[in-house]
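re the bet — no i am not wrong, look at it urself. input seq straight from the record:
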Amino acid sequence: MLMRIAAIVLCTVLAGNGFAQGMNKKVKEINSGEATRIAQAIVGLRVLKAELPPSITQSEIFIDHEHSVIDLMYLLDQRSSREDLRALVNLSSYYLGESPAQTVSCLMIRKGKKLLPFLNEAVKSPQSACAKQTKISVRENICIPSEILKARLVAVSKAISTGERCSEL
């Protein structure tokens, strides 16, 4: 529970200070493993929202969560190590909201052909990263069904292979 609360605090602080957008151009190198921690913060917020009653999740912090999630995603745009690329593909297996899901797809398209091995690996996997890492009790509220996820990943792979550009970012 403390990890989840820490994720909310991180999301709120970063978004509230305009950190992610302001730092998008300034940060040249983020420490190794940072993409995984950013993804964990994003997912932690979604898991916490799924576990708490609506009376709590309708507070201002949760209403603004989508903006926090998108702000954190911009930090992932700067990362390109194998671990970072895998974290981005894994993040696509979670329900993040409509706008954040589009942002993830655009980020993946922007990564280009270096992302293809990770997309192919995820498409072939019998279980998504979300399903592997999430408790059964919240899985249906957090994880994208595997058929839908595979279709999205195939669409992103096709977009990358055909040289499509994403204008959403």
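see?? The chain has twelve helices and no strands. told u. also Residues 2-161 form one domain. so pay up
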